[in-house]
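re: ur question from earlier - yeah i can do the single chain one, its not a big deal. heres the input i used so u can compare w yours
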Amino acid sequence: MTDGKRRRGVVAVAALLGGVLTLSACGGGDEGGGDSGADPAKKPEKGQAQVDRAAAEKASDARIVITPEDGADNASIHAAQVGVKGGKLTSVTMKATATGQEVEGTLAADGSGWKPNGQLERATQYTISAEAEDAKGREVHENSTFTTVSPSNSFIGYFTPEDGSTVGVGMPVSINFDKGITDKKAVQSAIEVNSTSGQEIVGHWFSDTRLDFRPQEYWKSGSKVTVDLNLDGVEGAEGITGVQDKSFSFTVGRSQVSTVDVKSKTMEVVRDGKTVKTFKISAGAPETPTYNGQMVISEKFKETRMNGATVGFTDDDGKGEYDIKDVPHAMRLSTSGTFIHGNYWGSDSVFGNVNTSHGCVGLNDVQGANDPSQDGAWFFDNSLLGDVVIVKNSPDKQITPDNGLNGWNMSWADWKAGSAL
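and the output i got, formated as tokens:
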């Protein structure tokens, strides 16, 4: 081989070896130098899969579901609950965030759910921490922090009569809302009133804050009335939602309707269709007569104070025309101040002969309300909230239906016309 050929061969071999080295460098061998473009800290793909598989094997199949969800605002005071899928709850703790006070709750025996024992407070932040495990004992944890609806953007209804009470046949279901209701249809639709008597029951709006329910005639004696307030989450006005999810019921007792004849100055008490008592009374004087109409006893007081100034009866000095601190056996018939009550300051000769009151109906009685033989005591002891007192032959007008629980002074057609449904 000539020198020229030998030099060309060496160059060719060098070029070939150079190509091999270049390929080796780009291949990224264990000891190869240069920048391969790979993250040297990253584990091989096969190793990552092994790690992921191991983590999955350790993960619990249980999935905790907390309501309201974390970060919720304006949450219902009845909505809090914890559930679980693929396992069972082992521990749930709920606290008011600001005070740390724990909320009592009940965990289902099978670990399927948890609920607070009562309704929550409004405008309060709560935190729920829950733990669960699956069939293999693998644990999972979940937390939620939420805030309940505030009084400023929620409404509630105060109702009459009381849950579990026994009332007279004239007692309506009366609900007074603490906010004005503009969507009356939505609110009325969320309230159910049913009676074992089978009577048709209709609601009537007296105002945007008062809704009463009654049948066409008085309730039937012995019937049970059940009321369901399904108002939680119902929007009563723009941005104002209900928070109540409550049921209550009451029983209608014997029928007692008492009729006051202002002209004859007597009162006849009729119970279950039979006259049981007739009393001599003293009603409103000619210048301050008693309302006519059907009135329902809404409150009872063994003794109470009556001051004329509170109902507009004042003297020239602005003081009440009367101020009696211990009126015995008083029962309210109207919001405006009409009562039927015992009278110890009038002489016995007044009753049955002269109408002397400022609009109330008076029965003979004694000071101290401690003599059961007195007319006032008997009537008080034998009356229920919801009993009806009818006043007739008075020179005054008929009482308005919204003055007390006195919707019976409205025709059935007019009553139904005030329904939003």
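The two ends are 116 Å apart (CA to CA). not sure if urs matches, ping me
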